Amino acid sequence: MTAEVSTIHPLGPKTLEDWLAEEQPSDGSRLELILGYLYMTPAPGGPHQYAAGELFVALRNAVRAAGRDDLNVLPAVAVKISTPFRTGVVPDIAVVSAGIEHTSFEAEQLVLAVEIWSPGNTREERDTKVAAYAAAKVPYLWIVELPRLGKPAKFYGYTLGAVTYRQEVYAAAGEAVLAPGPVPVTVDTSELS
Length: 193
What we know:
The protein has helices at about 15-20, 45-65, 125-135, and strands spanning about 30-35, 35-40, 70-75, 80, 85-90, 95, 105, 110-115, 140-145, 155-160, 165-170, 175-180, 185-190. A hairpin with an 8-residue loop joins strand 9 and strand 10 (about 155-160). The chain has a six-stranded mixed sheet with strand order 3-6-8-9-10-11, with helices on both faces. It has one domain: tt1808, chain A (Alpha-Beta Complex), CATH 3.90.1570. The protein is α+β, with helices and mostly antiparallel strands.
């Protein structure tokens, strides 16, 4: 997977400070800032939240088992990816190297970002967020693709190379894999949907 942030795209008028000052939607939607433009995604549905919950518990338990009190696992927190590129996102799960008392986190504190894609997520949204994580030098990225009904979830685990992500693992159809990350975590796709 190649990830690049285009310097040709015109930046929108909103800054990270504008984004953080915005009133968050009361319906559970997520407000993100992509290249200076506010972008709202619908509130996550049940299958999305179920997969996020399973991954959150697996990550939290792995961090505790590894004795990593320097890491915290948080669901859906604001991360300031890039001030020059006016980008701030809300990963479904974030593993951060900071305390939990913050309302937003710096990109360099994000150790692992987890994104759960539902069938409604656009290709542009996916590519833009992956490029933003790579540009911010987030070391690890997990992507879960939720299926349409009756199909298994797919899991992709990436490690950041020099400038792009390198796929380390892939699992589907009930397979379990050891996912790349700051601590050992086995992800079982049969538990994600």
